[in-house]
Amino acid sequence: MAVGEREGTDPSTYTSHYSKFERERFPANQAAWVKRAQDVAEILASDAPKRDNENKSPIAEIGLLKASGLLKVMGPKKYGGGGEPWSTGYKVIREVAKGDGSLGMLLGYHLLWSTTANVVGTEEQADSVQQAIIENNWFVGGAVNPRDNDLKITDDGDNIVFNGFKNFNTGGVVSDLTVLEGVFDGTEDHIFTLVKTDQPGIQFQHNWDNVGMRLTESGSVRIENVKAPWSDALGWSTETKRPIPEVLNIPFASMLLPTIQLVFSNFYLGLAQGALLAATKYTKTSTRPWPFGGDNKDTVTEEFYVLERYGQYAAHVEAADALTDRAGLKIDEVYAEADVTLHRKSINAERRGQVAAFVAHAKVVNTDTGLEVTSGIFEMLGSRATSRKHGFDRFWRDIRTHSLHDPVAYKKREVGKWQLLGEIPEPTWYT
Length: 431
Known about the structure:
The protein has 431 residues and is α/β, with parallel strands linked by helices. 49% of the residues lie in helices and 10% in strands.
């Protein structure tokens, strides 16, 4: 074990579940994929508080995602994937997050990173990347934190060479492939590529020990002389060693950003839904009515304030669910149109901006609703529910931790400009 490296969870933990998934039919439609995600969430929820407290590297949990097939939900059918659109991917993320926010987050990032070449690569690159990921059932992490200095990329002839440091990466320690992104030396041009994670030049610092999302291995990483062939530089020409304009110099090339922002919204929503479900079960089985209010009830489910609060939270969560689904369908429309046009030129700045605005609506509502629900459930549970063995706090800690990724205030400003001025959100690393 490397210095500072955490002990991993035991891969044999879920052996019986691996066998069960192997016996079951591969999901064939959205409903079946959602059901598979619900099964995985139920498994993860059964010991989530314990695993959260132990804070081990999620080796077994990633194995469970692999065995369930969820990593392949959006992969091409011709290579053994589910062939589902983003709207299904989002629902699957949401379901897994109900059981374990860390694994919902890891699945979401994997689905984004595994489809990177679909957005910024050539058709040939997208096809070869998808084939490799789906046929090998690889899990993809990423070291792409825009708040840090860019990785420096140099040319050594046949290869591009990455060097630098990132304060955050996602799931890298337990990944098979890592997405790297940096700036080509002497230019302002960015390059994305995917490399094998298990190599000496990718040096994880094993320093992720945060309040929430504790099983995401999101610590820092040093990149030293990591090479990739020029042919793996997504959207770049191997002959000119320059970006290919019809691939990268169009609004569609920035679709990764609203796509991942909606990933965030979906696991925030899943956390809120998971918290509400767990709280409901506990209230009905363990919470006692308050005997000193002057309007005493025989059971807690007759308490007016308990019913009122559950009603409020359930209504807000259901509204968030509908809004998030609508945003997911908007994402689907853009990707479907880009597939039809092949060169993606029909996706202009206005179209891209409208989708980003829909995503911003969902981000605002899910952040605010998620924080309110995950912190407020304790008022309906009682003091005994604060025991660490129950782990009710993990829902709030998870959403509180990740919602600091980028300030939701800026999403509210985007929505305000769209509403008041008709201005579409400007493409940035966070929009």
